[in-house]
Design goal:
The chain has 239 residues and is mainly alpha-helical. The protein has helices spanning 11-33, 43-65, 69-89, 99-131, 138-169, 174-202, 207-232. 78% of the residues lie in helices and 0% in strands.
């Protein structure tokens, strides 16, 4: 939402979805609070950051209610920063991971969050056009391009991780290859294809059909990232 120009999008888009972020961060804080210390490194700090993100989301919704776009965008970036710091602090690095592996894990967090975030934001913005059909298409087109860029960056990172994994540990077995295939076809290639379809649908223009395609894109992105997390458990590199 932070890269969506407020001059072209009504403030209700930011306000309503900051409420959604407030709920999600509240849920995250409860999940961390109910966990045991061994499940989360830096558990107390992660819990505090989740609370901060939830409070900032509420503050941001109030700011957008009073039509303060500069302050509203700043709050959005602060929510993103708090969430990213919490995700990084909650990540367990294998003890034998190298500096190269640690860098890939950090990039994995950033690129994965970016892919999910921009895909979901594009879908929500597409839905907002159904409420405010007079808005220009430039903000949604920008998010679709941003979505394609995030997918390409994610693809490059996962390709690097997979190639290093094969070099260090040999070729995966048939079961792991099946999941890797699902991960690539769903979360990367499939999502990229839907971004291309959305872009061409907006040329018609038809925001309702584009939003439907983005719904499917969100599902594929979530499936791909969940499979990626399952594959990467216990591994040194993101897959």
């Amino acid at each position: 939402m932070g890269v969506t120009p407020p001059k072209l999008v009504t403030s209700g888009f930011y306000r309503v979805h900051l409420w959604v972020l407030m709920g999600l961060n509240t849920l995250a804080s409860l999940a961390v609070f109910s966990s045991v210390e061994e499940d989360y490194p830096n558990r107390s700090i992660v819990f505090g950051l989740a609370i901060i993100a939830a409070v900032l989301s509420f503050v941001g919704s109030v700011v957008w209610l009073y039509e303060k776009p500069r302050a509203g965008i700043l709050v959005l970036y602060l929510v993103a920063l708090a969430s990213l710091l919490a995700a990084g602090l909650a990540t367990k690095l294998p003890e034998i991971v190298s500096d190269r592996g640690a860098a890939l894990v950090i990039l994995d967090l950033v690129s994965g969050g970016l892919l999910l975030g921009v895909t979901l934001s594009a879908m929500l913005l597409g839905h907002w056009y159904l409420n405010t059909p007079t808005m220009k298409l430039v903000p949604l087109q920008r998010l679709v391009l941003f979505m394609a860029g995030a997918i390409i960056a994610r693809t490059i990172l996962c390709a690097i991780g997979l190639s290093i994994h094969i070099q260090d540990q040999g070729s995966p077995d048939a079961t792991m290859w099946a999941f890797i295939t699902l991960r690539w076809l769903s979360g990367l290639l499939g999502t990229l294809m839907l971004a291309w379809l959305t872009w061409n649908t907006l040329k018609i223009p038809n925001t309702q059909s584009a939003t439907g395609i983005l719904y499917a894109g969100v599902i594929l992105a979530f499936v791909g990232e969940l499979v990626s997390q399952l594959l990467s458990v216990g591994e040194l590199y993101p897959l």
